[in-house]
Amino acid sequence: MAVDTGGKLVEEGAEWFTTLIESAKKEISSATELIAFAIHGFMLDLDFIVREQNLEKSEIPSSWKTSAGIVFKYNYKNTDVQAQITIFNLGKFIQIHGFIPSASESFTVCLKQG
Description:
The structure is a single chain. The chain has two helices and six strands, in the order ααββββββ. With 114 residues, it is an alpha+beta fold.
């Protein structure tokens, strides 16, 4: 766990991210979920805002766990640009899928576990 150094960015030990991870510890039960929250933190760091919820950066979205896996939906700043990150287990892999509806673009990466 990063120690708050007064920085604004996740990698600088931002207080909001430390608070987010501390709050999420009760809900995180796997490496996939921990990776999901790290990615979520970086999306917030890039000024994405959780869609359809008026949340502070340090708050956990209520609907992050779904039957499709872990899903985070965002708007970019105060624009109509949307993005969705879906993270799920696929055998011994963790699949991370990003989608930008307005551009019909998607990006996928697989991480091998263990």
